[in-house]
């Protein structure tokens, strides 16, 4: 049995719970009803607010439009009452001066005739400023035809006063309706400011004017206008810039207004000029009545909820007594009396609760028995897991590679014993963490190692890097580090990285020895190229000496051709000796040098240019050499035979080497007299052409074709031979 004090506490807790339940339910129902009603009122009143705001913007736009139209009307009336075409210049000027005196907004009036020449003018400006204004007008007038309709130009800011100005233009017609000239007025929009300043929206609302570029033209704060402020970022102005006057109806919206506060605003576009009048009403004033209604509704809802809470307390105290015994029974069972049964008594719901409680305690006893069995099974599983973990530990300790496991979030790291012993340390001799690893990486390798590790973390990928690692005795050993993402959080971010280190010092030493051998071989090969070039130069010197002593012209010519062939081969080895790549030659530079030698040898006194098509093509020596010899023979033949004395057209020779798909195309062409018709050039007695055919078909494995007339073009096509290259991955 429980004490009276304990029963009172229990009853009070249940009473409060039921009171809170009644209170919460009442609040939920009332809030739902009030909320739906408030939403309906909000939408209705918001629509009314927006409609009022649109009407205010439209009324303001009419006022601004009247200002513009009034000025147009004054000018049109003056044109209609004053026959400018029959008036003298003095009379015309008097009319314009009268308009300037009557309308303070008129800053400058200029009358042009039908040829856009100035007839008369009146101004509030100095003579110098008037002349500058007229010069600008003449530059902007289109052609010689005056406008046939009234127009107003874009707003511009006077650089002297920072006041906004607009140019108005009206056609001047005679009684028959023929256009006789143009009346142009510079309108000072500052006078529109007073009109806009007097326009009010509600109690605290305001109006301002902007053009299609977002420039502020009129506002109560004239200083902002004089500064040439742009308001294109405001939502209403941006909407006007985007839609203009051709879109459908303009809707009011809520946004941050020109004064920086939240407003309900909209705009009304003007057709002439292309401006917009924006009306903004502070949000507090626009929604004042609506907010007051919402506050009143919330007060009523709260009062009704409090009444419901009092009713809940009363009902709870009446119905809580039958539950006290059930609560006491539950407490004793929780204290260890698990065989105790609750008495089934009281109202039907409480009786059902007691029955369910007894059933629950029976199931609880059964669950405790099942839980004991599961605990025994879990203990056996834990023992098996411990043995498996021991086997894994022995495997890790037995490998020669160092294994690491890094928790990216906490920085906690595991280094296997081999990780330490591989670089001369005892296991766990220094703390296993990221910073200790970083301190032992060679300074030249730190940046790349960190970059690859961070990229693998960011991309949840793997990485491989070779770096130098400092041993305990201060030496550096080469290590191949491999790692990959091994854990992720709910957002897919990498939380864990794992991998291993392998000692690759011996392999690196072998690579260094191989690299040194290759460098030595490269030096020897470069020396071979140099010696071959020198030997060919000696042969060229001997051929030249023999040619100088030869009295037979045919023999001398043959020796000269032989000298050029030897020079062509020597040029290849000179290019190879000077190149970083000792097995391939850059053909365009080679052919350019060859063309320059041939022009000097055979065409120096004839001024025949030899053009080599620019580009970058590298060929192996066994391909580049025949190409050079072919070009030597064909260009030499062209210089000798293609341009006989007395030719009307200036001679030129072109050499081009291109790669098309998997084939190379070598083209040597000239604009000379061409080959004799029907000449079987493949069977010609000329040694040069026979050599060309031999080099093209046998050494290059290609084909040769001849085009022309006009001129002659030899086209050699041969397959591209692919080089062999090996590629080894890291580590």
Describe the overall structure.
The protein has 731 residues and is an alpha+beta fold. It is built from 18 helices and 23 strands. The strands form five sheets. Strands 1, 2, 3, 4, 5 and 6 form a six-stranded antiparallel sheet that branches. It has a five-stranded antiparallel sheet with strand order 8-7-11-10-9. Strands 13-12-16-15-14 form a five-stranded antiparallel sheet, with helices on both faces. Strand 10 and strand 11 form a beta hairpin. Helix 14 runs antiparallel to helix 15 (553-578), helix 15 runs antiparallel to helix 16 and helix 16 (587-602) runs parallel beside helix 17. The relative contact order is 0.05.
Topology (SSEs and partners):
Blueprint: H1 4-81, H2 89-102, E1 106-113, E2 118-123, H3 127-140, E3 151-152, E4 156-157, E5 164-173, E6 179-188, H4 191-198, E7 206-211, E8 216-218, H5 222-226, H6 235-243, E9 253-256, E10 262-269, E11 275-282, H7 283-286, H8 288-319, H9 321-334, H10 348-398, E12 402-407, E13 413-415, H11 417-421, H12 434-439, H13 443-459, E14 462-470, E15 476-488, E16 494-503, H14 505-549, H15 553-578, E17 584-586, H16 587-602, E18 610-612, E19 618-620, H17 621-642, E20 653-660, E21 663-670, H18 687-699, E22 703-707, E23 712-719
Parallel strand pairs: 18-20
Antiparallel strand pairs: 1-2, 1-6, 3-5, 4-5, 5-6, 7-8, 7-11, 9-10, 10-11, 12-13, 12-16, 14-15, 15-16, 17-19, 20-21, 21-23, 22-23
